[in-house]
């Protein structure tokens, strides 16, 4: 049975993609997005436990085992293997010492037992590896396939329908170009047979002028076609990318927390591959196929024997190329692995030079790098040998064909069955018939890449928007702006992980400051993100006044919230644009108030262009403390009803912190403030302090009340505030 391969769409999709291939092997189609959700794939990838749990949800039995290579021969295949300690692949066949692997990142490859062991064994000193054994149970065949799993070219083709008149002109140009090329061999034959043989110079002039006119006509058509393609491709690119960005900005924040930057950028570049395929590769291949058909008919007209020789040699050429594909795939697999290791080694050497020199490990690290170069050299010699063998065979077939056709043509001329001009025309026609074959191979590869790109784009467009158009949202805050949380429980997606927050009951009064403290990992930031609607609670309710938070429009809620997160982002823009984010016209009174509150006045005045000084991407060129003060100024500039601070002053020195806290105490009068902090001097004056431990509220009260209790809060603060024991 042929094993169906799917390539992973994202860098961390190897687990769900393996499950998708195994489901397909047993006769069921599942979309990658559904499997990704079932596997709880996030920026950290997924675990074997999560893959097992997802497999059982779609009706597959699963068993995670650690087995030796001998025991692996007795298990049910295909199975999922934990590969190189950071990847998942499928073992779908074992034949003698050959192991057949479906690697979602690379393709179908065959490995020797030595290479297989190096990649699968957990450690060099261990002689077994981890595998997830899978097989269908009756429920598997009762569940329905994903209907939305098919690639929908219609979503992309609708962009091209807007320019159907221009595409008609392109196709018309292709037809005219084919006719011009078709005339070339007949001109050549007429030039030799009539012009030269009859010594008719006037006829030669006529043919040469005709060829010159045809050349200018073909050149003009190519120029016009290039301008039309540029016009269409640029407009289509902008349209596709704009629609993608619009969709991307409608997705919930949780989507971006589960995707790496590379995955999102990959999707943005996918439209370029699709556009190149449709406006470049597809049209060129269409033109080549038309040429192939037309010139094949002409070749049959000239000489049937030469046509058959050309046909047989083309088939042999294709078979010869296909014969090397498998071995080339294996070498490409190894090349990627070695190149990746080499790249990582160089980056590590450069980034870790300080530690290397401090620990006198220059020679050790250099020797490790030289060992990688030795492996790279061995690979290059194998690759060169294979390329030479493939090139030799291809050249032999092509040259053999050309020599044989030349011999038959010359013999036909000598025998009087073909004119000299006809022989020259045949040589041109044979060349025109051979070229499209190579282009067809490139077309197939480009189609596969475009299909994967389209799957990635379609997947994003099928996701639900953060604010569904089918639901009604309230776009005005209630008069009572107090926040209440009732019996709320939240668990991050993933199997075998307990609740991050459990049975939370909390009131955050309007106009008061509520502080949240606790050990790292107690759920403080998660609680803040739930209030900011990064996620939805698993159980329980969050209300603003008497309105459910989920009923409020996202924009009105976020407009009402000023936020300083631990990982707040600084844009590659001016100081003023980083503070007044999203504002078209600056309110300079509010701007100066924000700068003074965040104690940025001296910093801004010391810059060469003041407020209009540009900062590097991500805040490059400024300190962590300056970045944090910019984020505070950004929150203050909004003049919001709510302020949410997550470790807002942890990068500040004591002096700056005191000044900013004094300024903030004046600014927050009448505002509802939620502060998360480790530095407990920040929360000392809060109206209510919530103490979290392992996702539960264990204490709450004022600083004085909690220190008097001598409980968990007291243990947290006694060292920082030098309280008596």
Automatic annotation (TrEMBL):
Molecular-function annotations in GO: ABC-type oligopeptide transporter activity; ATP binding; ATP hydrolysis activity; peptidase activity
Span of domain ABC transmembrane type-1: 170-449
Occurrences of domain ABC transporter (ranges): 483-719
Occurrences of domain Peptidase C39 (ranges): 8-127
Cellular component terms per the entry's GO annotation: plasma membrane
GO biological process, any: proteolysis
Record-linked InterPro entries: AAA+_ATPase, ABC1_TM_dom, ABC1_TM_sf, ABC_transporter-like_ATP-bd, ABC_transporter-like_CS, P-loop_NTPase, Peptidase_C39, Type_1_exporter
SMART domains listed in its UniProt record: AAA
Subcellular compartments: Cell membrane
Keywords tagged on the record: ATP-binding, Cell membrane, Hydrolase, Membrane, Nucleotide-binding, Transmembrane, Transmembrane helix, Transport
Domain of life assignment: Bacteria
Recorded topology in the membrane: Multi-pass membrane protein
Name assigned to this protein: ATP-binding cassette subfamily B protein
Lineage per the UniProt record: Bacteria, Pseudomonadati, Bacteroidota, Sphingobacteriia, Sphingobacteriales
